[in-house]
Amino acid sequence: MASAIVRRNITHNLKKLPFLSSSLFNNKHLFNVEPSGSVSFHSETVAGGGGLPSYMRGAVYWEPNKPLTIEEFHIPRPKAGELLIKTKACGVCHSDLHVMKAEIPFATPCVVGHEITGEVIEHGQNTDSKTIERLPVGSRVVGAFIMPCGNCSYCSKGHDDLCEAFFAYNRAKGTLYDGETRLFLRSSGKPVFMYSMGGLAEYCVVPANALAVLPSSMPYTESAILGCAVFTAYGAMAHAAEVRPGDSVAVIGTGGVGSSCLQIARAFGASDIIAVDVQDNKLEKAKTLGATHTINSAKEDPIEKILEITGGKGVDVAVEALGLPLTFAQCTQSVKDGGKAVMIGLAKAGSLGEIDINRLVRRKIKVIGSYGGRARQDLPKLIRLAETGIFDLGHAVSRKYTFEESGKAFQDLNEGKIVGRAVIEIV
């Protein structure tokens, strides 16, 4: 079979391999140490794929507020229902930055990066035939940051965004759904945890349910943002806000995710689309992405201005994309009676938002959280929106970095130097 893995077991005496660190033999994915003192070494080649290198590079976050370092890893190996992807591009997202600043607890050390495009290199053993047929070796793919298991009570109802395994294992422990990471340092064999698929690396392992085919007409680099920035915006607009043609929408915070919300709102036929930010350059950019009105909240009261634009009523939908108590309050106060305040910005752990309880009750204000879209349902739709030009990827991506510039990319993001979304090219 074209996708079959050819395995060769070569037994060597340990004394004849002085160039190998003894710690490598602790990596069960590569070696078996026999009782006789010999080691069984597994060399693997993917038929039709030209073989795999023995190691790769990945960007590691070690501890809070320390720069990323590029380290060498053993090539990660997929298990059943998982695919090995040669990463082509990875988006630069505030969620990673929250982890790197210790604002959101996560296992360390870890490889960050969670919105990727790439090429299918290998299927895990015992992966079902339908997955292999849908995503054959050589396929161009985009990966969603929420990686649904497909089997839990939520996934079985189509609510991939609430997948129990994703939150219990990946977000809580930094592993995939057998409780193990796929990343091991080349120098020591020590495990490194995974934020989503650990996409800021030359190869990554992704559960098949999180992947969709990327048409050959679409570029790897710009398409990477489909897996988080656009995916998050779509989840907010389609599932939480349920935006309808003619609705008025305000987006507070027009970074990578917020600016994607503007495009999705326009695609859904919203009428007034109001962009709120503190940087004029971001607001100018917002006008090209669908905003009909802009408000600099550093210069004028955004609530008063939104009420003025909407004839004193407020908007049907307000979206908060920053994760700050102040903007949480602005979001809830900007919606009309019966309106929806949708929260998509992650905050520092323990942050609280306040709301006027009487208004909430009397005026039927809806406050809804939204973490992202539903990978199996939504990712193919997003690809189609971008492929047809309804969502403009070119305007959404404003900066590109090389893999070696990964640390600089997140430094620039932290300093507010990135308008829209940046992408790291991994080639």
Automatic annotation (TrEMBL):
This is Enoyl reductase (ER) domain-containing protein. It holds the Pfam family ADH_zinc_N. Belongs to the zinc-containing alcohol dehydrogenase family. One of its GO terms (molecular function) is metal ion binding. Gene3D superfamilies: Medium-chain alcohol dehydrogenases, catalytic domain (3.90.180.10), NAD(P)-binding Rossmann-like Domain (3.40.50.720). Residues 63-424 form the Enoyl reductase (ER) domain. It comes from the Eukaryota. CDD domains: Zn_ADH10. Its cofactor is Zn(2+). Keywords: Metal-binding, NAD, Oxidoreductase, Zinc. InterPro entries: ADH-like_C (IPR013149), ADH-like_N (IPR013154), ER (IPR020843), GroES-like_sf (IPR011032), NAD(P)-bd_dom_sf (IPR036291).
